[in-house]
Amino acid sequence: MRTLIPALALLSSLLACGGGGSASTSPAPAGPVAPSGLAAHGSLGHIQLDWSPAAGDTGYNLYRSPDGTAWTQVNGAPLTTAAYDDPIPSPSGDGVVYAYRVTGLKASAESTPSASVRCMHGTRLPATMAAGFTTVPADSPYVAEGTVTVNGGNLVVDAGTDLYVADGATLDLEAGDGSAAGRLWVKGLLRVAASPLTPAAFTAHKVGGTLANNEGFSIWFDNAVNYDPTDGSGCLLQNATITNLASGNAYGGFDLINCGPRLTNLKATANCSNGISYLYVRGTGAIIDHCTFSQITPSIEAEQRSSAFSFDHNRFRGGYYAISFLSLPDQGVDPGQVASNDFDGSASAYLYNVAGSTDVPLGGNFWSGGAGSPPVPGETTGLTTVHFDFTTALSTAPSGVGPSW
Predict the structure, then answer these.
(1) What is the pTM of this model?
(2) Backbone angles phi, psi at 158, to 5 degrees
């Protein structure tokens, strides 16, 4: 036993010095932490960002993306405060929904990115308007976000001004006959920047009461900025629900006057049980696709041949007519310009005062509820020398009709 004592003493000494066993180490210093609470606030020419500082971080990097995919660092030197004012150039930055995210810095390390936020620059529309509102060039572009309530007049997007409608925004107009109130009147540029995941909304209300049948509002594009299919610029009404459109007096429903906007991915419903609300096409070159229209009649009232006009993959239900063509010097459209739609064939197709020698070509459409096989609607004519040509009508609804959401 006496020979074991020196060995045990040696082992004890080695363990005390860390030899022959696990070393006792200090915890590694904590790395940088991604900040939380990132928020964005837009104004004319600026997007202001702020966030909650993360404990231990010594600085921050801010990143911006126009598409949520390609990110560019905004700051040069590390940011030492939890806020940043990002100047946005105009017009190149008008209507661009920028995404932002921020990282924390500590020593030479950078944290993972924070959750991202999205924002546009521009003058915000007031949340409540007591006497209508007309945009002015000095404050353009404008942005509608949250809920915007318009009373006592029309909302006019004047010539030379732009209005962009953000994700999830609601424009709620006081109902009226469209002359003194009840009209979204676009003379400049209107673009909806909402995505299908967070669509915008356009609707109407009645001050001090409930909307009666036929009451509501109208949307006019009146000599507005044309949509350009080559680059996607111009008036674009998309990814939105539209409810409480008025009945078809001179101001009811949609009116596209002397211009060609694009209407796409819409769910539009009129507040009229008899279907006398109209989608008037009185300008050249409109593009109308992948929409659902309820209680609304499409009415072609301007020559569209050889223009950019296209009308496809839409669904109509409950309109007074399946479709109408009015006061045209000839058939109005080329073959294929109105095609791949699902029309309500239980209502008649209306021709009035359409001249020429060639029948109006409406082949390639489905007429739900129409007569025969494939179904076609009845025809109602007046002061016309031509008829509708439904050949070849589809026997079933085409795929991809209506909005994608």
Answers:
(1) 0.91
(2) -75, 165
